[in-house]
UniProtKB/TrEMBL annotation:
This is DUF3311 domain-containing protein. The chain crosses the membrane at residues 31-53. Keywords: Membrane, Transmembrane, Transmembrane helix. InterPro entries: DUF3311. Pfam families: DUF3311. It comes from Fuerstiella marisgermanici. The keyword Transmembrane applies.
């Protein structure tokens, strides 16, 4: 799963550099330009990928004990 998350990060990095909606004046829902809608989708996707990264690819440090409840 860790490599899948890295693949999604790489895919988002590539998809972030769009060139195809710069000259398109289409409105989504009659109010939002298609380029802005595209970047809103990329931003939501980045948030989902970040959640997956923290859930599945975050390094685990087993050397600290957080269950003692004492002073740090």
């Amino acid at each position: 799963m860790k490599y899948c998350v890295w693949g999604l990060v790489a895919l988002l990095a590539v998809l972030h550099h769009d060139l195809w909606f710069w000259e398109d004046a289409t409105l989504v829902g009659g109010i939002m330009p298609i380029g802005l809608f595209y970047h809103a989708g990329i931003s939501l996707s980045a948030g989902i990928v970040w959640f997956l990264a923290t859930k599945f690819a975050w390094p685990v440090d087993d050397s600290t004990d957080v269950t003692d409840g004492g002073d740090a």
